[in-house]
Amino acid sequence: MRRREFISLLGGAAAAAPLTARTQQAERMRRIGVLLPSQKDADQEYQARLAAFVQALRDLGWVESRNVQLDVRRPKPTAADIRKHVAELVAAAPDVILTSGGTTLPSLLQTTRIIPIVFMSVVDPVGAGFVQRLSRPGGNATGFMQFEYSLSGKWLELIKQSAPGTTHAAVIRDPSTTSGIGQFAVIQSVASSIGVEVVPVDGRDTDEINRAIEVVVSTPHGGLIVTTSAAANAHRDQIIALAARHRLSAVYPRRAWVELGGLMSYGSDIFAASRQAAGYVDRILKGEKPADMPVQAPTKYELVVNLKTAKAIGLELPAAVLARADDVIE
Q1: Do 197 and 167 contact (CB within 8 A), yes or no?
Q2: What is the value of pTM for the model shown?
Q3: Residue 284: which CATH number?
């Protein structure tokens, strides 16, 4: 080979090398761990949230089996099973972990402070100690809040607007969490201004839930608020059945409760959070650090009403409430 041809060949190879390296890097298989607690009546909702996340990933160029692999774990909503799945997932060393919220995040953060974590629905990440501050989380976790505390007061206002005669309401919450304490505090702060007495109820205890409902219905014009917590979710069927049996005006934090027969819900669009989470995962896979990515509050809330349930409990919802509803289940 002549010297000039040899030099030309080297030059061509050098020029092609960066392109080849970039192509290989772009198509390098990345791994995403997914940790979503499995609950019998929540499976359909979680599957839909996961589907929204996967579709948003595809829109960003991440396609399963081509350049990304998902390791989906569905632990039972118990501390022991969550710890087991967290240990297995962290041992597999994914590039990033997607999780739902406060039920799984403590175990994840106790197990790894290295693997990036994106959460989809945490009520109070600062108060719970998951991040240092919303604008700059400072650790290996970031993500999306389920709502801002001010939303909690809207639940009581909705009950009063839907059933103006309401004079007292039970508030099912988890007193062992900062979010449970915070949500009730906001509800209590607006109660006197609208003439409703509120009573906190430990959402972790089946017997206490039953007793509290009996107290509420012992006098007329009672209502029910269910705040967001893993404990309340664990008793979802029981709570909805009690509210229906005693014909209570009740408001819940998520639309899934209304789809299962609850009267109404007001909360964030959880599918929007799933899509946004895909954007954060994309940025992390491209090199950004969770410590520098702000925790975001929801930008959209939705009111969902079940007219069939309203009719069954003998409640005629005011036109003003129906006009505000984003979705009406008939």
Answers
A1: yes
A2: 0.81
A3: 3.40.50.2300
